[in-house]
Design a protein that fits this description.
about 260 residues, alpha+beta, YojJ-like (1, seven-stranded mixed sheet, about 55% helix
């Protein structure tokens, strides 16, 4: 056994190197999971592996081109990931860094049947009265930047409170209501509007904002149309229109119940 280890082309330092690189990649993936940045992360990883293979096979010209591309790409990444980099350094400055980043989901992520019913019934009532509403239910991505744009609430999920928030004469009815980990955390939040050119013209700003936020994150949005009273929801930048309260309940039960 000792002779075999002696003749291996790598030593303990190489094993530790591979381990820590894998750990770093895991942490980066956990941090970016649920955002559009994770697609960029995989793209960069692909080009880096390709570059290493090209170097390994001594393809000098292609190696030089890919090396220059990755070198310039580092500067571009700083610009692209500026918000994520800032939040990352703020995050590691907090207590329990390793505990927080290693958790797969925050405690309390599974909703009770009563909480889902409260959301569905509020949508049903607002649809009947044609009260416009926009919900955002988070999954992996906590949407901290969007939460900061609104008014903090930090209240349990309540049909009466939801309907009061979106009543047209209240100061909180504009914008989105963010629901995260079984709690209504903020109202009147500002969402990014989708720039897609193929969105039907009859869809208003609420629908465009709901599409926009789901293009870049893993959240689910629910929209109640003020004009038609129809209920819709969005995932991954795709809007599903004219759904029934029962279909909405089945969707939320599938996504947010254990």
């Amino acid at each position: 056994m000792l002779n075999l280890i002696h003749f291996l082309p790598f030593g303990l330092a190489d094993i530790l190197d591979i381990f820590f690189v894998g750990l770093l990649l895991y942490f980066l993936f956990r941090w970016l999971k649920g955002t559009s940045a994770v697609n960029i992360f995989f793209g960069i990883l692909f080009f880096y592996i390709l570059w290493k293979l090209v170097v390994l096979f001594h393809m000098d010209m292609l190696s030089e081109i890919l090396g220059q591309f990755l070198g310039v790409g580092v500067i571009a990444l700083i610009v692209i990931f500026q918000p994520e980099i800032r939040n990352f350094f703020l995050f590691i400055g907090k207590n329990n860094f390793l505990k927080n980043i290693m958790l797969q989901k925050e405690e309390g992520g599974n909703y009770s049947e009563q909480e889902i019913n409260e959301i569905v019934l509020s949508c049903q009532n607002m649809a009947a009265s044609r009260t416009g509403a926009l919900f955002v239910l988070t999954r992996e991505n906590p949407l901290d930047d969007i939460v900061k744009t609104g008014e903090p609430i930090h209240a349990r999920i309540s049909r009466e409170l939801i309907e009061t928030i979106f009543f047209k004469n209240t100061p909180l009815h504009d914008g989105a209501l963010i629901i995260r980990n079984r709690e209504m955390v903020a109202a009147r939040c500002i969402l990014p509007v989708s720039q897609k050119g193929n969105i039907p013209s009859y869809l208003g700003l609420r629908h465009r904002a709901s599409i926009g936020v789901t293009e870049n994150t893993d959240c689910i949005t629910i929209i109640v149309s003020e004009q038609t009273g129809h209920i819709s929801y969005c995932t991954n930048g795709i809007i599903h229109e004219h759904i029934t309260p029962q279909a909405l309940k089945e969707l939320l039960s599938k996504e947010f119940r254990a």
